[in-house]
């Protein structure tokens, strides 16, 4: 059976896991990292701040300081970065996913819309309509496609990582404290559901590029309309922002590292939630972004 078919089968098996298996054990601390987009140097720096050092083999070391910690990437670890940094990012994540998960699950991947679209391109998804706009977007937003087409080994690593991605995870510490993790914001009725519509909603919300003049708070009003004054948090990325944006229990941690700002994480330990970040390190060309602010009240 071809590699892509085997990986597709594994991915389909992963998608049919019961919701219980999408629960994060509450006995560990979680470092939840926003959209990386090839910012590998910033990713390493952020992990170092959380007690994960990188050894000479580019592997994260396990020490008494971090033995109770786990890492969650919120999706979109590819695209927008340089070819060199995207290559480093895929190799680093793949090697450490294998390395950290040997004894117990310490590294979790959530599916982003960029992983989803790149997968559709490189597997020749028959439902992907190729036209001039699609090709333009491929060159502008999904530059990992060309990289994977040039590097079969890297394509293999990406496909293996894609097969491990989940659409969501949930952490429940008590009846008063929980955290739901998805790549994109979405209405609450779709959260943690396993039907195809819900999975798509958790991976990508309505396009900003198709509605450039509409404020985010009007484009996706459910985010603030469904926000509550409690500690049942929904943390997501996807919507590049100049800083962490929070309204009540809704939190966006995509802080635009690839656009020259910061790479951020949320840290969940027992019933506490804190944040950390590192600045863009200028080791690749930053992208250009005009911000459409979330929770801009």
Structure description:
- With 297 residues, the chain is an alpha/beta fold.
- The protein has a single domain (26-279), classed as Metallo-dependent phosphatases (Purple Acid Phosphatase, chain A, domain 2).
- It has 10 helices and 11 strands.
Low-confidence stretches: 10-19
Structural class: alpha/beta
Helix content: 25-40%
Q: What pattern of helices and strands is seen along the backbone?
A: HEEHEHEHHHHEEHHHEEEEE
Give me the CATH fold name.
Purple Acid Phosphatase, chain A, domain 2
> Overall pLDDT, averaged?
91
The CATH superfamily title:
Metallo-dependent phosphatases
Largest sheet: 6 strands, mixed
What multimeric state do the chains show? single chain
CATH classification, class level? Alpha Beta
Count of discrete alpha- or pi-helical segments spanning 4 or more residues? 10
List keywords for this structure.
single chain, 297 residues, alpha/beta, Purple Acid Phosphatase, chain A, domain 2, 6-stranded mixed β-sheet, 5-stranded mixed β-sheet
Summarize the SSE layout with pairings:
Blueprint: H1 3-15, E1 23-24, E2 29-33, H2 40-49, E3 69-73, H3 83-100, E4 107-109, H4 113-122, H5 132-141, H6 144-150, H7 152-164, E5 168-174, E6 177-182, H8 196-203, H9 216-219, H10 222-225, E7 232-236, E8 245-247, E9 250-252, E10 262-269, E11 272-279
